[in-house]
Structures are given as structure tokens and as C-alpha cells.
Amino acid sequence: MVQSKGINFNGQNIYIGIDVHLKSWSVTIITESGYKRTHSQKPSAKELFEHLKKHYPNGKYQAVYESGFSGYSTYYALKEYGIKCMIIHAADVPTSQYENVMKTDAIDSEKLAKSLKGGLLRGIYVRDKEELDDRSLIRLRKTLQKQLGGYKSRVKHLLYNNGISYPDCFENSRSHWSNRFIYWLENEVRLLSSTRLSLDLLIDQVKLFRKNLLKATRMVRDLSKKPQYSRQYENLISIPGIGLVTAMCLLTEIGDVSRFHNQREFASFLGLIPSCHSSGENIYNMEKTFRGNKHLGPLVIESAWVSIRHDRAMSMAYGAYCKRMKGQEAIIRIARKMSNRILSVLKSGKKYQYDKVR
């Protein structure tokens, strides 16, 4: 007991691997000498800190966990107790064949702790708390847009199932979902059944999601006027193809642009770098890598399609690419060029100058 009371890890690094789950944490703790212990506990930063303070007093606590459902909440909870923390992408954790075959929470947390102690991990970028809700707003708007599109498709599918044809005034799909079109759906459409409960419910959902999408868009517009975004927002929309939503999505997803040291790093973050397989003298560039931001990549590609209609340099480059590859492949090259322009604008703080297509 006397020896236990005299334990002091003053100045020593204590490495902590946490396998985070909703109802429990599996925690492996390794000291500098290699002493290792694994335990399971409630998902509580306070409980972990009390355990560390009791068994590893005065140590320099360093923790790591894989990014997942808990987001940044675990990171900030640990930070409040003075525990230095790193969030790691699951695919970046060195894994042996045994660890692949024998997968348990204890093995996963031990793997994290060992990799942290060995200096083998590179954490993901952790953004400021105040930026999190801004990013969530942009992502929620995208979700609302997709859900609205889904309900519109269900309405049309129901019309087709009931053999309903559009009047001549609605032959052009661009006129669909106008107030006049909604009025026609609500007052003139008759289904095969004597009732139309399903159609009325779907129309209500369309109107609800349109209302919420409009509200979200207004919030995004207000967000673009905030001091921390307004200047860079104006610079970004000077690039042909980039509008309100794409610009704000870029700003809220990227955060600190200085973390990108070159154009390739930035393009990789956007998911615009091809995967590569090389063996000996043979080098094969294949499809885009699965890594990269899932929200930004598609937006930049959409913007690239617009840019080739307005930016002369982009239009010429696209034409040259199309001579030796398919249009879908060529537009990825244009998107890569656009990513270079985006990075340049964000780092220079200046608007983009281009030669317009007339």
C-alpha cells in the first residue's frame, strides 16, 4: 500500500487508445516503459480522467480515438480535463493480419494506443466549436434538397401508376412544381380510386420540404454575410460555376486553408485524386480514390460543368481533353483545375480574374 501511494508519473507520457461506442468505451493505457492495461468503462471523459488521476498521477495524458458517430464531442470532452487528444481516420490505423481476424473492442483500443506510442498516427483536422453548427446547416440543407427531390419523384410515380397525363401547359418539365402545377395536383387530379389520400399526403410533404429548404437557404445567405466568411465568400463566387451554396460549403468544410501545403493536398481533400497502382515499371492511374470529402467533390464537379460555359481557358482545356478521353473523364480534369483556382483564391485573398466566353 505504501508503494502504491507513492506512485508518480510526473513528466511521463501516458498513451491512451479509446474504442468509442454509444454505451461503453474500451480503453487501453500504455506507459513509456510499455506497461499496459485495458479496461471497459462508461462513455465518460470525467470517469476516464478520474481513473488516470488515480492510477497514473501527474502523467502527460495523450489519447486517440477513431472518427465516427461521436464526432468531435469526445475530443472536446477530453480536452476539458487536460487530456491531449487526437482523432484518427479508421483507415489510417496500422493493422496486422491478427488484428483483422481477431477483432474485439479491447484489441482495437490496444492497437490505437500502440500506434500512438509509436508515433504512427496522423490526426484529422479538428475545427473550432463555433464552426460546427455552420457546417451542419450546409449539410442539412443538402439533405433537405435530396428529400424534397425524393418526394417529388414519388408524386410523379403515383401519377404514372394511375395513368394520369400532364396537360399541354405542363408538357415542359421546367413548369413542374410551380404554384400553378401544385394547384393542378391539389384540385384537378383524380386517381383510379375514389380517394386520393396518398397524393394529398405526398403534396403536403413536398410543400413542407420546400418551405424548410427555402428557410435553410435564407440562413445560408445570412451566414455568408458574417465577418468570418464575407470576404472569402465574395472571392469564391468570382470563380465561374461557384454560387452561394458551393462557396459556403467550401468555407465551412475547409476551415483553415493554411493546413494545405500544396495543390495536390487540397485536391486530395476534395476527393479529386485518382487511385494509383504501380509495380516495377508499370504504373496505373485508376478511378478517384474513396478518400476525400464526400460533400465537396461532387459540388466542385458540378461547378466545373458550369465553368466550361463561361471561362474561356476552362472551355479550351475541356475541348483539348475531349480529343483524347470521354467527356466524363475530361470534366474531372477540369474539376482538378478548378480546385487549384479555389485554393489560389482562398490563399491569396483576391478575386479570380478570367476571360469570359462570348
Structural summary, described in words:
The strands form two sheets. A five-stranded mixed beta sheet has the order 3-2-1-4-5. A two-stranded antiparallel sheet has the order 6-7. The radius of gyration is 27 Å and the shape is globular. Helix content is 52%, strand content 13%. The protein has 358 residues and is of the alpha/beta class. It has helices at residues 2-5, 45-55, 73-80, 97-101, 105-117, 129-161, 179-187, 197-224, 227-236, 244-254, 263-270, 296-307, 312-322, 327-348; strands at 13-20, 25-31, 36-41, 60-66, 84-88, 274-279, 282-288. It folds into three domains: 2-117, ATPase, nucleotide binding domain (Nucleotidyltransferase, domain 5, 2-Layer Sandwich), CATH 3.30.420.40; 131-224; 231-348, no CATH class.
